[in-house]
Amino acid sequence: MYSLAREVIGVIDTDGEFAEWTFPADPGAVRTARRAVRGRLHGWDLDSVSDIAALLVSELVTNALRHATGPIGVRLVRPAGVNGVLLVEVSDPLPDPPRERVARPEDESGRGLQLVASSARRWGTRPGGAGKTVWFELAVPG
């Protein structure tokens, strides 16, 4: 299920704590992104969502590596005035939105967006100046 990006524009543009990285489009980006996300969330005392955030980021970075060339951006946002939410964004230079599909049991790929959809509070995509961003929100225990 896609959520409309307009629903989170206010969240994206709010003040708050954030961390962002840009990774080259090479296979090591997945591991490096996962490590960066875990490290920042540990620094924010958000270890409770660290594993799921790192897993979903690695799925989206993997998708970006498979379908796009160029840098991959990862951004974590703890929006000011919005308690209990962590916003995670993964950007790449390919403008085409991802398509959720049903993977067959023997398929070795195709489950990343299903995992995001079933694990995140909500998620969606939005076009960018040169590509797109896939975002998701995780509920952060208060």
The helix tally amounts to 4
How much helical structure, as a percent, in the residues?
A: 25-40%
pLDDT under 50 segments (min length 5)?
A: 1-14
The total count of strands amounts to 5
Instruction: Specify the overall morphology.
Output: globular
Structure class: alpha+beta
Order of helices and strands: HEHHEEHEE
Termini separation comes to 26 Å
Our estimate of the beta-strand percent is 25-35%
Largest sheet: 5 strands, antiparallel
Biggest sheet, spatial arrangement of strands: 1-2-3-5-4
Mean pLDDT: 83
Q: What is the radius of gyration computed over CA atoms, rounded to a whole number of angstroms?
A: 14 Å
How would the blueprint of this fold be written?
Layout: H1 9-12, E1 16-23, H2 28-43, H3 50-67, E2 72-79, E3 85-92, H4 112-119, E4 122-128, E5 131-139
Antiparallel strand pairs: 1-2, 2-3, 3-5, 4-5
Helix pairs in contact: 2-3, 3-4
